[in-house]
Design a protein that fits this description.
- This protein is an alpha/beta fold.
- It is about 30% helix and about 25% strand.
- Strand 4 (about 85) and strand 5 (about 95) form a beta hairpin.
- Helix 4 (about 95-105) runs antiparallel to helix 11 (about 285-295).
- The relative contact order is 0.19.
Length: about 300
Amino acid sequence: MRKLSAAAIVAAAAFALVGCSDPDQTTSSSTASGEETTTSASTVEAFDVSQIPTVDEIAALVPAAVKERDVLRNGASTDYAPGEFRGADGQTPVGYDVDLTRALAKVMGLSDGETTHAEFPTILPALGTKFDVGISSFTITPERVEQVHMISYVEVGSAYAVAAGNPSAFDPTNVCGSTIGVQNGTYQQELAQTLSDECEAAGKEAISIMPHDLQSDIATKVIGGQYDATFADSTVIGYAVELSTGKLEQVGDVIESEPQGVAVAQADLELATAVQAALQYLMDEGYLKQILAAYGAEGAALTTAELHSAK
């Protein structure tokens, strides 16, 4: 979940977010059987948004300045797969938020939806000037809604994944004594420590928490049997399962889920209304789920594009 902590604010120049994964990672990993498997962004076939039609009634809602530019400009911190990261060339933004930006542009009658990398804390202040929208896994919070309009489109929580068949018999409802891989600096690392403390307080065995910088490294350990499970954002888990080609599976329910939203400048209610209508169309016609499905994230799709604005 992208929620800036005090530590993340201090480290903004480096990563500027909590819960990131390597945007450029292509990983060769050994399975339990000794086979080498490679996972990379190139294995994902994104949904072809060119087939999405323009909806004239929604295009009519688009502000004149955006129409004249004919491009929907999105700011995203491209270091958070599968929402927004960089492709095989190490430069081109890819991910379901990048695809969603193009899909919104299509519905709104614009020639393109363009995503540009920006450090996470700089995106919201740049809305209305440098960017039209911020589609970058923004969790909807009261503090953000005071700054910008936010239109919900996905709900993301935390989830576990295990090796296919769950050979360790990992129980997501009773994690005491388990060995769990987490990414450094993520919300799940903090939550795993809290759960471990609760285990010890109850007289049970603590969780062995194994932090790594890369989610791909954790997946390798889980597939190889060194760890019982990995714990991450539900969309990150879905993407890891998608790339594992059957070697990982999600277990248990998504917990502590919260909606994420498209951000629009507080002064631009006209654009926020157009984005809300376009998002609702993509939901109603099934396009949003198809966009997310390419990254194993279709389960995160919402069915109502709710506009959150300061009162």
